[in-house]
Amino acid sequence: MYQEYQPHAILAPYIDKYWEVKGELEPGSYMKILPDGCTDFIFNLEDTGNLEDNRQFIAKPLHGYFVGAMKTYSELLVRARSIHMLGVRFTPCGLTVFTREALGEFTNQRVCLQDLNLLFHEEFAVWLREKATLGERLLFIEEYLLLRLKYAETIDKQVVWTAGLIRQAGGLLSIRELTDRVCLCQRHFERRFKHATGFTPKEYSRIVKFRRAMDVLRQVSRDNLFNVSVDCGYYDSSHLVKEFKKLSGSSPVVFMSLPEDVPITYLDV
After folding, report:
1. What pLDDT score does 263 carry?
2. Phi-psi domain of 90 (left: phi exceeds 0; alpha: psi -120 through 50; beta: other)
3. What CATH number does residue 178 fall under?
4. CA distances from 154 to 2, 31, 151, 191 (A)
5. Distance in angstroms (rounded) separating the CA atoms of residues 131 and 147
């Protein structure tokens, strides 16, 4: 039902993945969308509004949306049985090569493209729907992005480098260590980081640590919960459970039963 696709090599520094959700869900059920440190554009290719949250967001038919940096999980209510969504997931900082907008203004928001002048036109979902195959749709997106790349904005290389450093360290570096390495005062560093990613460095580090622990949990048994906690930078298993409840709405044990080789972006409820 959920599949991911790699971007063109030229776009790989900016696009994490293209993704598609297509199939049938049970109306009245919920999808828990997990934070991943990225931002997305999503396009509803169905003729019905099929998902909604508790903030008056409804995925209207043949509409596109920008999903800002999410600091915790969110629940989407399934309203219709059939679902067909196509998405473009940007790397942290990746979207800033296409826009000067401050991404910190969109944290924890889903905004309809009708209300936003940000990279994709409001009719983009309709244009994608007119394509006959997934391959044609992905090619259409890539050609559009490659064209826009010719007019690229200047990217904040210090923030890109620091975000990479946070990922390499599994989210375990302190803010003091990060500011020392990037040679900026904390306030100025945090402002630039949030402008480019939608997160503060602390918020981004927290999500990176959570995602690393989530991946490790899929490879171990319940007996190793304490070891996973310590290895991933949590004080103990109680701290790990508390963080997972906040960021995913679920116990760490849930992730132990999930297959290792399948990307996890949401949980069915």
Report:
1. 85
2. beta
3. 1.10.10.60
4. 33, 36, 10, 17
5. 19
Q: Write down the residue that tokens 């969308």 correspond to.
A: 33
What's the token pair of residue 107?
Answer: 């944290």
Mean pLDDT of all residues in 157-165: 95
Asked whether the predicted pLDDT for residue 114 surpasses 80, the reply is yes
Which residue in this structure is represented by tokens 């090599």?
9
Structure-token match 């849930």, residue found: 254
Listed residues 124, 149, 174: the one ending a domain: 149
Q: Are residues 138 and 161 in the same domain?
A: no
Q: DSSP of 159-176, one letter per residue?
A: HHHHHHHHHHTTT---HH
Pick the last residue of a domain from 149, 178, 208.
149
CA neighbours closer than 13 Å in the CB half-sphere of residue 161: 9
d(CA 109, CA 63): 16
> Is residue 74 predicted with pLDDT exceeding 80?
yes
**pLDDT higher than threshold 90 for residue 257:** no
pLDDT, the chain, mean: 93
Same domain, 21 and 138: yes
Tell me what percent of the residues of the chain surpass a pLDDT of 70: 100
On whether both 27 and 129 belong to a single domain, the answer is yes
Q: How far apart are CA 31 and CA 75, in angstroms?
A: 6
Helix (H) or strand (E) holding 15: strand 15-24
Residue 17 tokens read as 């993945």
Are 142 and 170 within one domain?
no
Which residues are within 8 A (CB) of 266 and not within 5 positions of it... i.e. 6 or more apart? 2, 31, 32, 33, 34
